[in-house]
Design goal:
Length: 253
Amino acid sequence: MRDPLVSVVIPVHNGVRHLIPAVESVLLQRVPLEIIVVDDASDEDVAGALAEYIDSGRLILLRNEKNLGPARSRNRGVKKAKGRFIAYLDSDDSWEPDKLRKQLREMKRTGCVLCSTGRRLMTPEGRKTRRTIGVRQRISYRGLLTHNSINCSSVVMRRDVALEFPMAHDEYHEDYLTWLRVLRKYRYACAVNEPLLNYRLSNKGKSGNKLHSARMTYGVYRCMGFSLPKSILCFISYSVNGLLKYSDLPLKL
């Protein structure tokens, strides 16, 4: 795409079997876009799996010579991007058609620099479940401190803002840290409260081990420069909201 409006950045590390459905879901979007896949030193043949898309000019593949982690891999894609907006997508997730168009419309209406969506949970095998997680249509910095309702694979953000706040600290939740830094300056994000993201559940990711995930969340607050008491208070509220999010109780929007 010569003049993309949106640059879709997909980091991947040995996830070829899920990568093709993710790419295909991007190609269903009805906005001018480019796809940038960042191969984070995979042992698998990512280039071979994507050869058809690369040869047709529908996809750009960047390869890291050594493993950099998702944060720096996404940053590399952002620097390469030509679009006015950046959309992040993990290689094992996928989108519903018209996701990007609905988000761009909402960003134009609200003037927000970042937009999220609701999501539908998928099994590790990729089967869609009936369980959906909604999102407030207006997300404040204060609200985000106690509940990370912004899933990385749902995000569309202005490229200049993505360059202003590059992702860092893979040892923590690098995406949550980024959204907090963005909203601390820009105050609000918007969202489309529809399950436009298909989110794959897995016990292998950083969030799979709940104790480890909790430690990383606490680390985010310390990276933000919060005092010990404030970090503890934010963490307690975050933990309570996290339990409600995946319980059988109806989500309060």
